[in-house]
Amino acid sequence: MVGTATVKRDTYEIVFDGGALGNPGKGYGSYQITAPDGAMTRDRLDYGDGVTNNQAEYRTLIAALRRLSFTLGAGAGSANVIVRGDSQLVLYQVQGTWKVKTEGLRPLHRQAADLVGQFGRVDLVWHARKHSVSVLGH
Q: What is the distance between the terminal CA atoms of the chain, rounded to a whole angstrom?
């Protein structure tokens, strides 16, 4: 569900953001995963040249979901996750509300949707860009 969600004690939170300097251009992304105990994991990613903003957003979400899935192992299937980002396109497409019209995004969409399906519950929450900047610094 794309909307609002409150972090509960048993919930992991992912904040992600991706972009490109030029569109397409040099792609980058960052994410932060916060565990229920407050422990945080952050990563900054570089995707090289020829990447669109939307590709960078998807790649960053995929990287964050993979990292959390790997960390949780068999426990991923019962985990509650809130995913927060400023890309309505990515969030609504992964949720299934919006169609994926750009051929180049379809494989990324499939990867993200498959990863979301590995967790017990995932809430997808859009927030304004300023929130991504305050958490991730870009």
A: 25
- pLDDT of the residue at 138: 84
Q: What is the Cα–Cα distance from 106 to 115, expressed in whole angstroms?
A: 14
Domain that holds residue 96: 11-136
Q: Is the pLDDT of residue 15 over 60?
A: yes
pLDDT (tens digit per residue) in 70-94: 999 999 999 999 999 999 999 999 9
Could you tell me the CATH number of the domain that includes residue 67? 3.30.420.10
Residue 19 token pair: 């972009």
Bridge-based pairing state of the strands 11-22 and 25-34: antiparallel
pLDDT of residue 6: 60
